[in-house]
Amino acid sequence: DGGITQSPKYLFRKEGQNVTLSCEQNLNHDAMYWYRQDPGQGLRLIYYSQIVNDFQKGDIAEGYSVSREKKESFPLTVTSAQKNPTAFYLCASSVRPGLGDEKLFFGSGTQLSVL
Amino acid sequence: AQSVTQPDIHITVSEGASLELRCNYSYGATPYLFWYVQSPGQGLQLLLKYFSGDTLVQGIKGFEAEFKRSQSSFNLRKPSVHWSDAAEYFCAWRSGGFKTIFGAGTRLFVKA
């Protein structure tokens, strides 16, 4: 079945440590996204990518980095510069936006906590 | 700035009762509007979307939503709620391009 796979399901970060969240899709989608979800705040866009080797900052990119070396993969690194990383992270994908009615397909998320 | 408002943080409904979740957006042009549902610890799943045509749209799991331009609203409804509908519901707005703006969500509790 086609879909988006995020791993790990749970991740713990020590202070000063960088951690990487994995996101893989087999939907042949051009666009991929990373969202952060905090209770009561909805979803906020961290980074998005339209095509391989290209990505753009979202609303809360500080303290995060991404790469898009393959169409299927869009890993997110939470760096030590992100002082409040505890959150639920969601990866999503879509066909290349045209009219804007394209829906997002979501992975099942990674819960990141600080030790 | 564009925004999506879901006025109710949580709602409790009895099983079998009707449901309406409110959503308001702030943008002049006709937006593309979506409702997504999230079960605990899971990703989001699309319930329905509106982008043109009939202002009453049908979705999965018996949900429907009505776009009212005069009220800048896109409320989600279901005639009879089932216990399995307990989840968090997000209204979202997209104008074209890559950015989707989400509301803060409404958590639905269903009591027996």
The chain pair with the largest interface is: A-B, 28 and 25 residues
Number of strands of chain A: 11
**Count of helical segments of chain A?**
0
* Tally of DSSP helical segments of chain B: 0
Q: From the alpha carbons, calculate the radius of gyration of chain A and give it in angstroms.
A: 13 Å
Q: What is the N-to-C order of secondary-structure elements of chain A (H for helix, E for strand)? A: EEEEEEEEEEE
Please bin the fraction of helical residues of chain A: under 10%
SS class of chain B: mainly beta
> Which residues of chain B sit in consecutive blocks of at least 5 with pLDDT less than 50?
none
Structural class of chain A: mainly beta
Which strand-content bin applies to the residues of chain B?
over 45%
On the 0 to 100 scale, the average pLDDT of chain A is 92
Strand content of chain A: over 45%
The geometry of chain B reads as globular
Query: What's the N-to-C terminus distance of chain A?
Result: 35 Å
Residue runs with pLDDT of under 50 for 5 or more positions of chain A: none
Largest sheet, strands/sense/barrel of chain A = 7 strands, mixed
